[in-house]
Design a protein that fits this description.
The complex is a heterodimer of chains A (284) and B (142). By secondary structure, chain A is of the alpha/beta class. Chain A is 34% helix and 18% strand. Chain B has a five-stranded mixed beta sheet with strand order 3-2-1-4-5. Classes of the chains: A alpha/beta (284), B alpha+beta (142).
Chain lengths: 284, 142
């Protein structure tokens, strides 16, 4: 008998976000400094399963992740059938702050990947004093569209298959098959139009190239980690952010792609642990 | 001219039950341009029925994939370097052009990623597309 539970507990949180009642799935593991995790576009909290199962992290950090409304096990708001989902910068920031407030998180560390990495930069610009440190994975200030996003949500192609196939090359070829296909499975499970709606933020509404120099790393430390195989947010784009933000710490991770925490958790955690240790040490 | 044997594509694809199953609803013809050399690939129920080398008079196809010989050579390495390892990565770098009626391509993207990866020396498809094992890939084409 080798059955066992992961150390993760998931619950549904009822709260208002931007005036709308929401039912949001939140999971957490560990104790200590709160570490809030933001998933990529069209995916959900399962991307952080590696962090939430690693005793080296859980002994000092309370790792929390939530599915954005419309994603994973979070419900879309009532009346979703009469709207087209589109994530905006303002809505994304409102989501993160509402969760922090609802859970009473005291100066959490926030780690976010891709759209989550972009919003981490936005939090660094607008709300640096609310956070202990910010960690952007695959974070860039802007991504130009390189394919017609309409293909992500059309009745004449299978949305799950197409979304997963579009992002499959963003996983590094060297990542283990088990984690590659788990990562892509999450994409196959997204609701219709949700990945596309997230990319509205990523490629249209969330362009912060003009604001990046306002980040003050003395108000909140900023760490940037990017996988070398990412052609969506390329290492060059992350390095460009680092060049323009004095004090930002940057590392390009060999053998990883756009979903480092999910596609190869062990390799990624090797890069993350020293950063978490520094954050904890500076927190006293 | 690249030394990749594109005319072997039919044998490689049709010998792969998982790929045939994935493509079982796919009927299309597409143009594959490798530098100045055009190839026409005709697919019926996922089977590659014909691979012919141009030049052509009045070729008919749904969509075209066009890249330089150098780019395809990099893509067809056993372990391509970052940016050369995936069709969407090549599209992002603006070195692979996709045009025409792209619905069969976008609706069967895993199939086409796998089909073209078959031309790599190892022809390994494990990380490229989800493909059922041979003994499960028995459902007849429509």
């Amino acid at each position: 008998m080798n059955a066992r539970f992961d150390p993760i507990v998931g619950r549904y949180l009822r709260l208002d976000i931007e005036g709308k009642p929401c039912r949001v799935y939140v999971e957490e593991a560990g104790e200590g400094v709160p570490l809030l995790c933001l998933h990529t576009a069209g995916a959900d909290t399962r991307q952080y399963r590696g962090l939430m199962n690693d005793p080296r992290i859980l002994e000092n950090f309370r790792v929390i992740a939530f599915d954005l409304p419309w994603h994973g096990k979070s419900s879309p708001p009532a009346g979703w059938e009469r709207e087209e989902y589109r994530l905006s910068s303002a809505a994304y920031v409102a989501n993160v702050l509402a969760i922090c407030d609802a859970l009473g998180l005291d100066k959490p560390v926030v780690i976010g990947c891709s759209i989550g990495g972009r919003i981490v930069l936005k939090l660094a610009i607008e709300h640096p004093t609310r956070f202990r440190a910010l960690i952007g994975l695959q974070a860039g200030a802007h991504v130009d569209p390189y394919y017609d996003l309409g293909w992500l949500d059309r009745p004449d192609v299978h949305g799950g298959e197409t979304c997963a196939a579009i992002v499959s090359g963003l996983v590094a070829p060297t990542s283990p098959d088990e984690h590659r296909w788990e990562t892509l499975w999450h994409y196959m499970q997204g609701g219709p139009g949700v990945f596309k709606g997230d990319l509205h933020f990523y490629k249209v509404d969330g362009d912060i190239r003009g604001d990046i120099e306002r980040i003050d790393t003395s108000a909140c430390p900023l760490y940037l980690l990017s996988g070398e195989y990412d052609y969506s947010c390329t290492p060059e784009e992350t390095l460009d952010v680092a060049r323009r933000v004095p004090g930002a710490q940057v590392e390009i991770m060999p053998g990883l792609g756009h979903f480092p925490m999910s596609e190869d958790p062990e390799r990624f955690i090797g890069h993350l642990l020293p950063i978490l240790e520094r954050i904890r040490a500076s927190a006293g | 001219m690249t030394d990749i044997a594109i005319d072997r594509l039919g044998d490689l694809a049709n010998g792969h039950p998982g790929l045939l199953r994935r493509g079982r609803y796919l009927d299309t013809s597409f143009l594959l341009e490798v530098g100045a050399t055009p190839w026409l690939v005709r697919i019926h129920h996922g089977r590659v029925e014909a691979v012919s080398r141009g030049p052509f008079l009045m070729p008919c196809w749904d969509f075209a994939l066009r890249a330089s010989e150098e780019e395809w050579s990099m893509f067809w390495r056993d372990v391509p370097p970052p940016g050369h390892h995936d069709l969407m990565a090549m599209i992002k770098r603006r070195v692979l052009r996709l045009d025409g009626n792209v619905q069969p391509f976008m609706g069967n993207l895993f199939y086409f990623k796998a089909l073209l990866a078959l031309l790599r020396p190892g022809g390994r498809l494990d990380g490229v597309a989800p493909l059922p094992l041979a003994d499960q890939a028995t459902e007849a084409a429509p």
